[in-house]
Design a protein that fits this description.
The chain is of the alpha/beta class. The protein contains 11 helices and 8 strands. β7, α8 and β8 form a beta-alpha-beta unit.
């Protein structure tokens, strides 16, 4: 089992969209996935049409009040489970900062799940900040997946997250953390800037960049407002096709053979 952190300290890059839809598409391939919504905005939670619930997030687990197995919820999508978010996570960083092991707290918490065999992947939707929750996610993860939008500021955000990864490795908290992939999002083929950013990132990071490109589509933005992932909301649209392709590429990189696809 692998723990994948999906992170970028810059907001608005398609991070939650990628965490949610990649998780759903993997589940649709028969892969057992646990999605952890670690962002207090709870967009991954609401994006699945699931209500926030006090005590239902990972917060009471992080402060030692609740076993993590008690906050795992099934979803209407077979093979996909979630640990919901709640606004209570917003104050969690202050409490964790006062503890001596705040950087490794999440990793220790997930260790029993990692060895349990219940899931093939744990995917963490990290908050868009450089706080304790995001760095804790990086310390807990085996691999980092970075979504960046095909715009100039996306390049700036990418350089910063690469620097953070190096700091996490050098701190000893997670020396094996791998920058597994970069996913280009919000691509508009009509814009020269999108083409140029894609070219620059591929030239610099070469094989780390996924071949699959996520387009900018209205439907991807609409789907969460209906509490649906894109393969439910528009099964045959460009967004669904892109995230299904991303899931297949994700699995191919890890040597998985394709499993039977269910119908969303």
């Amino acid at each position: 089992m692998k723990i994948i952190a999906i992170a970028n300290q810059k907001g608005g890059v398609g991070k939650t969209t990628t965490a949610l839809n990649l998780s759903a598409c993997l589940a649709d391939r028969g892969i057992n996935v646990l999605l952890i919504d670690l962002d207090s905005q709870a967009n991954a939670t609401s994006g699945l049409g699931i209500a926030q619930e006090e005590g239902g997030s990972i917060y009471p687990c992080l402060i030692g009040q609740t076993p993590i197995t008690e906050v795992i919820c099934s979803t209407r999508i077979p093979h996909l489970s979630i640990i919901r978010s709640h606004q209570e996570l917003a104050g969690c960083e202050i409490e964790l900062a006062q503890s001596g092991n705040h950087l490794t707290r999440l990793r220790d918490l997930l260790a029993p799940l990692k060895s349990s065999g219940l899931f093939d992947y744990i995917i963490i939707d990290s908050p868009p900040s450089l706080g304790i929750l995001m760095t804790g996610a990086l310390a807990a993860a085996d691999e980092l997946l970075v979504p960046i939008q095909c715009e100039y500021f996306g390049l700036e955000g990418l350089s910063k997250i690469v620097h953070i990864v190096q700091q996490i490795r050098e701190s000893g908290a997670n020396p094996e953390l791998a920058l597994e992939g970069i996913v280009m999002t919000m691509f508009d083929s009509r814009m020269n800037l999108s083409q140029q950013v894609l070219k620059d990132v591929r030239e610099y990071f070469t094989e780390v960049v996924y071949d699959t490109i996520i387009p900018r589509t209205v439907r991807l933005g609409e789907a969460p407002s209906f509490g649906k992932c894109i393969i439910e909301y528009e099964p045959n649209g460009k967004g669904s096709q892109a995230y299904r392709a991303l899931a297949d590429e994700f699995l191919k990189r890890r040597g998985h053979s394709k499993k039977t696809t269910s119908k969303a």
